[in-house]
Amino acid sequence: MIVSSPIYLEHLTGLGHPERPERCKAIVSTLQKNQLMTKQNTLVPREATDEEILLCHSERYLKIVKQECEQIKVQGLPDDGSVMLLTGDVQICSKSIQVARYAVGGALVGIDALMKEVAKTVFCSIRPPGHHANSDIGMGFCLFNNAAIAARYAQKVYGIKRVAIIDWDVHHGNGTQDIFEEDPSVFYFSTHRFGHFYPGTGSEEETGIKAGKGTILNCPIRLEDGSPREAILKAFKNKLIPVMDQFQPGLVILSAGFDAHENDPLGGFDLTDQDFVELTQIVKGIAQKHAKGRILSVLEGGYDLEGLASAVSAHVAILKHC
Question: Under a CB-based contact definition with an 8 Å cutoff, are residues 293 and 322 in contact?
Fold first, then answer.
């Protein structure tokens, strides 16, 4: 099933910004064109509550986001996405807090559908993205950490004991790692570009701390080492599958960024649509073996509209047949 709504077009990020409303437009248009998205398989998102957002974020940070968005109108600031959030590189408008609530809520509606057996897999075409947001800071185009909150929600509401978050975005999900680095009940796996590249985290030495030691597995990839696509596929086959056999997650969440696509203007990687098909098939196998087939796929990056839409369509086509 697909989570989608016009509400996601109302988070404005300013002229020329790569994380723009047209991303969701392109995805929906292509999914509909390819008959992968219909009224029957589309889930309507809801607003996440403060309590749900606070599963992963601090009261202080939630207050900052609320105030910053409210102040745009109060102070007569431009409401076109040209204002930057106080904590870092996230463009906001007055409606950004509401849209971000719907992004979180979209992921939670997806969890509900999985756990109530309405669907085996759900793809969330949502924005703003989330994996750079940690408990206290929004950064990297991200306001709230949609995937992380979904994991906590599944644990709290449905009693899922172990959740795997698999992140194939070209950027390391530093926020997700920060949130779960001491938590042995959530395994975070990431393949990402490394070496003078945003956000600069995600080395192999970062494996979790205290009780969470060993439940973070980073697979950093340097451009000078050869083809990124070969390195990513190898990491999924040779590292992810064995560690998932040990961890045995009851739910799989994908931080599905498509900025590792060969046409992406920011990533510099070389993945094709077929590579995303193969990665999806690997994740599908893990979910079928350990998690009753349950996969929540949450959109992260991906900034070439045509490449994003075609890769998402290829990804959803595989999810649909799980």
Answer: yes
